[in-house]
Design goal:
This protein is mainly alpha-helical. The chain has 14 helices and three strands. It has a three-stranded antiparallel beta sheet with strand order 1-2-3, with no helix packed on it. The longest helix is centred in the first third of the chain and has 20 residues, at 55-74.
Length: 331
């Protein structure tokens, strides 16, 4: 609706004022560290680079450090020396209602950041040692698996006559059929697709490992439809771009969950509220379908780009909980 109403709004504005105002999307300004925390923040960023952390790890650490610094400034904290455990606890209270695993990630980053500040002498007390430890076993949660009927309804709810719908359909189809993480889908370039060999090649952001996936027929045609009839003119090298000016790449933190939720509502799906069914659940669904087809665990691990079969073993719990598969697979 917004996509169709915007031209009308611009026209009405012109008829009323006699002037054309092409209001484009405002780019969110980047983080500017307050001068009182700049030295330690920059040193922390350099330390993460020195440790050889991957890009996604560095972004996660720096983003959460930015949120903490912004909160400290709001609380009137003038320098790192004035940080107390009460300030950290105050920020953690703002995360109330979030999943334990999500809060645990913040605690991990804060412990890392505060340890760095203590070791470099920016704070005189080791606040990291005072933070609570949240134990979240790697395989504590049960991956949600979509039914084939719900997936069909989800894809059927997308308006494929609309340029943005063509994009969203291709993105969701890639997630469903190939199990790629949304971060890897965001980073796909047109050069990632080898049309001759019918493959998709990329370096996975999470593991840094190369992976080659088959360009399935339905995925290939969806991408072709988007490139020919949906993708706006842009200088961006990314395959999928925003459809509101400026037509650039998605932000690094765009998880596409808002779009997915919109199509869930449009399709009238009644999904369980006590389970996570975001973009990553589509990846779980591919694993569940491969298990149902009795694919060996190493094959599933290779398809998902896991570095260890033990990681893929998490999906074996799907069988125990939903009683969906008849064959018992050993860990």
């Amino acid at each position: 609706m917004n996509y169709r109403m915007r031209p009308l709004s611009l026209l009405l504005h012109y008829l009323e004022n006699g002037r054309f105002s092409n209001k484009v999307r405002r780019t969110k300004p980047g983080f500017v560290c307050p001068a009182s925390f700049a030295a330690e923040y920059e040193a922390f960023c350099e330390e993460l680079e020195y440790r050889g952390n991957r890009k996604v790890t560095i972004e996660s650490n720096t983003h959460k450090a930015q949120l903490l610094i912004a909160y400290l400034v709001e609380q009137g904290v003038a320098s790192s020396e004035d940080i107390t455990i009460q300030h950290i606890e105050g920020y953690l209270k703002t995360l109330g209602g979030y999943a334990v695993k999500y809060v645990g990630i913040f605690l991990y980053v804060f412990r890392n950041f505060l340890s760095f500040l203590y070791e470099r002498g920016y704070i005189g007390q080791n606040l990291a040692a005072m933070l609570p430890k949240v134990r979240t076993p790697r395989n504590a949660s049960i991956p949600y698996v979509w039914s084939k009927e719900d997936l069909q309804k989800l894809l059927g709810a997308i308006d494929r006559e609309d340029p943005k719908g063509k994009r969203d359909y291709a993105i969701l189809l890639i997630a469903i059929r190939l199990g790629l993480r949304i971060g890897d889908i965001r980073s796909l370039n047109q050069s990632s697709i080898d049309w001759t060999r019918k493959t998709i090649n990329l370096i996975m952001a999470k593991t840094g490992q190369p992976i080659e996936l088959p360009l399935l027929k339905d995925v290939g045609w969806a991408i072709i439809d988007y490139l020919r009839n949906g993708r706006p003119r842009t200088n961006s090298e990314c395959l999928f771009v925003r459809h509101r000016a400026p037509f650039n790449a998605f932000g690094d933190r765009n998880a596409f969950n808002r779009e997915l939720h919109r199509y869930i509502l449009k399709a009238g799906l009644n999904l369980p509220g006590n389970q996570y069914h975001g973009m990553h659940s589509l990846r779980s669904t591919l694993a569940g379908n491969m298990l149902e087809a009795k694919s060996p665990l190493p094959i599933i691990s290779e398809a998902l780009g896991h570095q260890s079969v033990n990681t893929t073993g998490i999906y074996l719990k799907i069988t125990a909980v939903q009683n969906k598969f008849k064959t018992t697979y050993p860990h």
